[in-house]
Write a structure and sequence with these properties.
The complex is a heterodimer of chains A (about 110) and B (about 350). Chain A is mainly α. Chain A has one domain (about 20-105): AhpD-like, CATH 1.20.1290. Chain A has helices at about 20-35, 40-55, 60-70, 75-95, 100-105. The mean pLDDT of chain A is about 95. By secondary structure, chain B is an alpha/beta fold. Chain B has a single domain, classed as TIM Barrel (Alpha-Beta Barrel), CATH 3.20.20.70. Helices cover about 35% and strands about 10% of the residues of chain B. Chain B contains 15 helices and ten strands. In chain B, the strands form two sheets. Chain B has an eight-stranded mixed β-sheet. A two-stranded antiparallel ribbon of chain B has the order 9-10. Chain B starts with a helix and ends in a 12-residue tail after the last helix. Classes of the chains: A mainly alpha (about 110), B alpha/beta (about 350). The interface of A and B includes residues 71 and 72 of A.
Chain lengths: ~110, ~350
Amino acid sequence: MDYYDTKDLKRFSEVGKFSEELMKKFFDYYNSVTAEDGALTKREKSLIALAVAHAKKCPYCIDAYTTQCLETGADPEQMTEAVHVAASMEAGITLIHGIQMHNALERNGAL
Amino acid sequence: MAQLTVLKQDYGTYDRDDDERYNFPEALRKHNVEITPGSIETLQINITKLCNQACVHCHVDSSPKRTEQMELRTVERCIEILTGHDSIKNLDITGGAPELNPHFDYLVTAARKLGKHVMVRHNLTVTLDGHPVTGESKAYLPQFYAQNNVEVISSLPYYQEYFTDKQRGKGVFEKSIESILLLNEAGYGKEGTGLELNFVYNPVGAFLPAAQESLEADFKRELLSKYGITFNRLYTITNMPINRFKEQLKRIGAYEDYMEKLLNAFNPAAVEGVMCRSLVSVSHDGRIYDCDFNQMLDMQTTSNGIPMTVFNFDFDELTGRRIMFGSHCFGCTAGSGSSCGGSTA
């Protein structure tokens, strides 16, 4: 059996088994943020969530937000751009740490 | 009654096991709502299964290989029914590509002479492709529609090429755009002309349509800025899990998930506007059904055990009929609802 089973996403609420109240608070918060149009449209939120899902490498979220993006009218081109935003942010985050490397080189008298 | 003897009485693709598993009448009871006929405002007739296209989602399983055509005497009987019933205000002509029936022009002009509102489910490409068997040109259609003030309702899965061609075939998007521009040229979708051009969006896969209003705004913005196209309204329609689309879902292992999605999205508020409350659907051979989907599943309407057709048409019997349900009915009540005129809630 795969470690990540697609069907497990439907069991998300079971995580509340030993702390129902905290889980309810989480779902209320989660749904308030993601399930409705606000200052951002539901589609924009879905594209952000899809990007985060890729950056955090969550297979459940990738499945869920691919569907959510489609059901809010996004197209594969927009979704791919969102993934590129995540990827470029990750690359940028890695690269900016090059400054820490420079700082360390400096401390070692090598720069 | 002679017509009745030649009508087939099988229930081809109707799946009783699915109806048990995804029990629509039970969902109605659970939510304390019911679906009964209101009136018959629209006569929807499927005059051919022949089409110049063969789309992935097509619940009619239409293609250039189909041969079913409504005969002239059945067309004339439909016109008689329209003549005799003032409350039937709309004629909704569908197919296949309805323009490929040899009696199409006659039917449209006759219904317009009666003062009926005529809607045609026009696939756009037939104007450019012509008849797939005889090669007969259909380039006259935009002018014909404008002269008869027909409401044109056309499937356009997306405002971009990718989704449209994936669903309707390679090159269909480009042809559709060309054909829409011809309709615009004839006055369709232009303010002040009264010529209505409406598009139909249905998802390209196993997901529900986006909100109608926001998608309509996207379509209007993108089609205007990229192609200079204008239109009136966008109708979002849920893909029905029957026939070709059901086979596709089963092939990709998504059928159960799709049905569960429809069932979980059951919306009692969407029930009021479902199409079977205000229309009846007629097949090419004159049989009567609650809707186009029941027609494709051979779930024919009966009265006291007698199959109903245009040849024994009885308005009161039909408005008092019991609507036949199946698992596919969840497609009309999911989310914002779905009907021939788009979302219902």
